[in-house]
Amino acid sequence: MLNDLLKDRYKEILSCHSEFITAKYRSNDETYNHLSGIFLPKVHAEYSNSKNKVMIIGRETKGWKDPGKDSFESIDNYVQKAMKIHNDAFLEQLNEKNPKGCTFLNFLRAIADKAGGQGIVWANLFCIAHKKSIPSNSKHFGQIKELSKKLLMAQIEILNPDILIFANGISTAPHRRDFFPLENCIHSKDFIEVDSKITNHYLWQFDLKGKNRNYLSFRLHHPSAYSEKAIYARKFFLEKVLPGRLI
Question: Residue 75 belongs to a domain with what CATH number?
Fold first, then answer.
């Protein structure tokens, strides 16, 4: 049911941004060739019944697969294929073993281990990557940013998660604040009184004002950040903070 609602909203939003579906193969503008497919999250069939619904918001997904030329029959066809790509990749990643180092997907799996995989939402601040990285250098960044905001807001509204985790890095802070202004981040909490090593630069808790309710939220550095303080704050969050917010 929720995936049907997502699908309908995606179609509605993309009808106003169809250039990102068709232009890559139908336009002479080569700047579209450097853009990834559109990241359209889907959730587990048992998401509604999950005790813990946690949305993890990354930055962008490098090299995200495009549904391909045969997806242009309709927006409906494109959305169905893009949602399947997300679902297949998510299920595959949940079952992968962690490689060495700090990665976003290691972080996602760590949260799924604690909260339960059925209630996890894998989302992104930006729905399209440019040259397998943040799309800010793309000629089309303004439109990508507008589309990304619409899609992310729809996902939050429809899926109504219990917890939002912003793990998209310091470099995206200005764009994140455009999406979610600081004045909408209320009842903030620092952890420095609990642990002097953790400032709000590395871990911050707040309630995000939503359309119908407030969302318990956390902001961390991107999980690939390898500074000692970033790693320490991430470990503290996973071991000390998150378990106390789960059912």
Answer: 3.40.470
